[in-house]
Amino acid sequence: MTIDDRTVRDLVLVGHGMVGQRFLEAWTEQPAARGWRVTVLAEEPRPAYDRVHLSSLFDGRTAEDLSLCPPGFLAEHGIDLRLGDPVTAIDRAGRTVTTRSGTEVRYDVLVLATGSVPFVPPVPGKDAAGCHVYRTIEDLDAIRADAEAAGTGVVVGGGLLGLEAAGALRAGGLSTHVVEFAPRLMAVQVDDGGGAVLRRKIEDLGVTVHTSAGASGVVTGPDGRVTALALSDGRELPADLVVFSAGVRARDQLARDCDLPVGQRGGIVVDEHCRTADPAILAIGECAQAADGRVYGLVAPGYQMAETAARTVAGLAGEGAGPTGEGFTGADTSTKLKLLGVDVASFGDPHGTAEGALDVLYSDSRSGVYRKLVIGQDGALLGGVLVGDTDAYGTLRPLAVAGKPLTVAPEQLVLPAGFANAGPVALPDDAVLCSCHNVTQGAVRAAVHEQGCDSVAAVKKCTRAGTGCGSCLKQLGTVVTEELEAAGVSTDKGLCEHFTHTRAELYEIVRVTGITTFTDLLDRHGNGEGCEICKPTVASILASLGNGHILDGEQGALQDSNDHFLANIQRNGSYSVVPRVPGGEITPEGLIVIGEIARDHGLYTKITGGQRIDLFGATVDQLPVIWRKLVDAGFESGHAYGKALRTVKSCVGETWCRYGVQDSTALAIELELRYRGLRSPHKLKSAVSGCARECAEARSKDFGIIATSAGWNLYVGGNGGMTPRHADLLAADLDRETLIRTIDRYLMFYIRTADRLERTSVWLERLEGGLDHLRAVVLDDSLGIAAELDDLMARHVGGYQDEWAETLADPDRMRRFASFVNAPGTPDPAVTFVPERGQIRPARAGEAGQTLTAPVPVLVAGSRLEVLTP
Amino acid sequence: MTVQIHDGTSWHAVCTLDDLQPGRGRAVLLDGDRQVALFLGRAGDLYAVDNLDPFSGAQVLSRGLIGSRGDRPTLASPMYKQVFDLTDGRCLDEDTAPDGAPAVLRLWPVRLAPEGEVV
Questions:
Q1: Any signal peptide, and if so, which residues (chain B) (predicted)?
Q2: Pairwise CB contact (< 8 Å): A70 & B99
């Protein structure tokens, strides 16, 4: 290829999806990129976004949250992005493209990143109202709009995307069905056994699965809307909404129209440098058929192609130079994901297609765990499938991709932890640890001992490993630690660079020595000035051991973002306020007072999942005014800001409920008042249910109590959040006194021995001896510390004071509640809001918001932001 | 004694030493809308940097925790906890903010001066 001697050359990118954006990022990093004008012609109305996480739009994330194009990126690099104007034709001879609007753009190099389109089986009625595909934000908006009026949704396709779509429908509150033509779910990635476990887990979530069934037609009502989906087996599934998610097809029409070769099953044919048959045209991502003859539908290979293409173009740009760097010859299609909350992973060759391949498998349908390893004749790991527990993925995938023999017996790797005693598995240096950025273990080791990286953070920065999907982070940590230890660098389990002790050790030091200040602790047992890790940890330890008000003296200088102002910091620097409502029981007067305060201060109000009322939008200056009113009305701090007991949720119990067998509300209130203000390594939540129907969701809590006709069952170690865990039964049919004593000891034992920010669930799983050991400690006093634990709790309960009432009573503590030290009373002008649905929300960048508080008078209540109803 | 911040033109007395808690910061309002985060270290050292957190876009850095990394004094943002070097304003965890700009805080000259001595 020859490039004219014009000073500015034109690079035209067609398509601005994930792969297109990655190409732009890689291209702008090339020194050769200077002197090139970049034009991007895109079909969708918005810049590149994270299509992989589309379904999170149903969980409250917004289209902006998914954006992949950093603000300022295009302007900084002078990239001309034209949205909503797709290319309709390529003139290869004239080196121009024409867009839908009729614009002609000339190019020196053209990069096609047009992605793929959803495949819709050609069934009658497929275009009826209520039928959708699942590909773009617009598709999701349309599904969401329809879902509001729909009761039942059917997804056609039980692959990756289909299950994503099913997750979205389920999140939208629809009764959800999945129809899959193959005999199992995720037929490409998992085998029959894994598919069966996956199906059971998904059905447990309330999604109905129909396998070996295809869609044969969409049935519509008189209004033309879908009413049912007819199946190939003769059945009809009633449906208000149908989503087709049966695979994708490469979008290669532009190439076909200008006679560029495409593969037999579609996809623009490219070589290992991503060049098409026309040297001025490249193709990347899902629209291309890679050099190995495959069309990749995953984002990681697309990213690798984008980077390859950027190097190819840069090579062409250099004088007479050809493509530089390694080409793209194919990629690992291993996947690890959480679909509908179920962990699924497959890697290497999961189906054992190689001759003589053997399976080693473990399946426990009771707990929903399935693990299969495919072993080659020579003992090498070829691939595998993991369902329900994918922890081993980080180690096994690189081994399988490298085709290396295992260093331990394979059965040790599939058995549950209790049966297995597998040692560490050694990875070869050419094993790819991070497949998003194609970083090998060798490169990570080199970063540590040759480039002086002394932490995971440093290695991430240096190699980009772990900065993509993050699934390799655990493994990355192991390798970095190993390498540091091998180099003689001590990787102690210390809290941070200022303390070589763990949190549990510091707790013991403080408890035994009676040290009461951070400075004292730092001088005697640490070094440096402290940091954002050790300061809040020590603050929590001091508070757990009863060292007075958390804002007093030096303790005030240790508190993290929320505790610092006894309120929860929100995204624009405003705060939210949560008064305690023990057990969720509240009088009409209490509700009215909270309502009046919110109204008078113009705050946004929301009922939380923990039976609280959250008031948002307060500035630092307003917090004392709001709390004065709350305290006067009898409310106290809800500690929603602290690593402390948050809520004890309850159902109404036997008092009102026709099924209740005990008074759960009274117990919840008693427990909440007993443990209020208790500082712990992680926030604590609890719940009490009045019968086995479990309306308070007690088994998703750090400690949960469920009434029985004989007493109370105590469950421990549950949590919601990112890695949910059901609590385990610690003791059954306890009387009230034994129950409370057991909880006292459990909490104090946890506070004493847990790591920083370690939830009870993680602590319990780490605890040597597990639940049996915990039971022995708290019920049988096997360690002889029960009296100490009881005494610590008694001191906590006896010494409790409401933090907010105490704060308001002390002018010294109140001094910090001013937005500006040189302008007390002036509210923060940077905290601005706009109206939405009759309340306020933080103004976004570029939005003209208003402050909530008038600039002059302080400590004056009154609604100040006019809330406009749309 | 007053704590004074130089805004490029002149020194402004913003508070007394008593207004600051060792190990902690306060926000200062300059020219009606410019926000500066002012910190007093445990050893009596003063630091002043932009209050705007480049990672969250919120004016909150005065509410962060100060500390040290190696022998450098640091500030951790209260929002997403990125750590900044208080001697040159550079972010030690990430080079660039989400908007692509370099993650560097402006440093403001700060001094302790006798009451009334304002130039």
A1: none
A2: yes
Residues A737 and A238: their CA atoms lie apart, in Å, by 53
For strand A439-440 and strand A432-434, is the pairing parallel, antiparallel, or unpaired?
antiparallel
Of A6, A14, A13, the residue nearest A35 (C-alpha): A6
Residue from the list B68, B79, B99 with its beta carbon closest to the beta carbon of A528: B68
Chain B hits for A821, CB-CB cut-off 8 Å, are 14-15, 19-20, 26-28, 38
Count each helix (H run) and each strand (E run) in chain A, helices first: 25, 39
With CB atoms and an 8 Å threshold, state whether A560 touches B60: no
pLDDT digits (tens, 9 = 90+) for B60-114: 999 999 999 998 999 999 999 999 999 999 999 888 888 888 999 999 999 998 8
- Give the type of residue at A28: T
pTM: 0.55
Residues 6+ apart with CB under 8 A from A851: A619, A827, A828, A829, A831, A832, A833, A864, A865
State the residue range of the domain holding B6. Answer: 2-111
Angle at A202 between CA A198 and CA A204, to 5 degrees: 120
Q: How far is CA A795 from CA A348, A599, A675, A748, A790, in A?
A: 57, 39, 11, 12, 9
In a domain, B119, yes or no: no
List CB contacts (< 8 A) between B73 and chain A.
Answer: 529
CB of B111 within 8 Å of a chain A CB? The answer is no
Encoding tokens for residue A659? 């099924």
Chain A residue closest to B52 (CA)?
A: A830
Chain B residue numbers with beta carbons less than 8 Å from the beta carbon of A538 are: none
Give the ipTM of the model, two decimals please.
0.94
Q: A564 vs B78: CB contact, 8 Å cut-off?
A: yes
* Cβ atoms A166, A155 nearer than 8 A: yes
Report if residue B78 sits inside a domain. yes
Number of domains comprising chain B: 1
Nearest to A830 among B59, B94, B95 (CB): B59
Tell me which chain B residue has its CA closest to the CA of residue A830: B59
| Long-range Cβ pairs for the range A452-456 (8 Å, 24+) | A453/A480, A454/A484, A454/A489, A455/A480, A456/A480
Q: Which amino acid makes up residue A426?
A: A
Higher pLDDT, A471 or A232: A232
Residues A551 and A816: beta-carbon distance below 8 Å:
yes
pLDDT in tens, A629-650: 999 999 999 999 999 999 999 9
* Phi then psi dihedrals of residue A590, to 5 deg: -60, -45
Does the distance separating the beta carbons of A816 and B58 come in below 8 Å? no
What's the CA gap between A160 and A35, in Å, rounded? 42
Chain B residues closer than 8 Å to A73 by CB? 100
Cα→Cα distances A849→A61, A110, A588, A836, A844, Å = 21, 43, 34, 12, 8
Cβ atoms within 10 Å of A303's Cβ, excluding its own: 25
B chain contacts of residue A557, beta-carbon cutoff 8 Å: 21-24
- How crowded is the C-beta side of A683, counted as CA atoms within 13 Å? 16
Sorted by sequence, the CB contacts under 8 Å of residue A188 that are 6+ apart come out as A159, A160
Residue A790 CB neighbours (<10 A): 15
Does residue A324 contact residue A314 with C-beta atoms inside 8 Å?
yes
Phi first, then psi, for residue A655 (nearest 5°) are: -60, -40
Instruction: Look at residue B118 and tell me if it is in a domain.
Output: no
Whether B117 maps to a domain, the answer reads: no
How far, in Å, CA of A506 to CA of A500, rounded? 9
The CATH number assigned to the domain holding B101 equals: 2.102.10.10
DSSP β-ladder status, A208-210 and A175-179: parallel
Which tens digit of pLDDT belongs to each residue from A718-752? 998 777 889 999 999 999 999 999 999 999 999 99
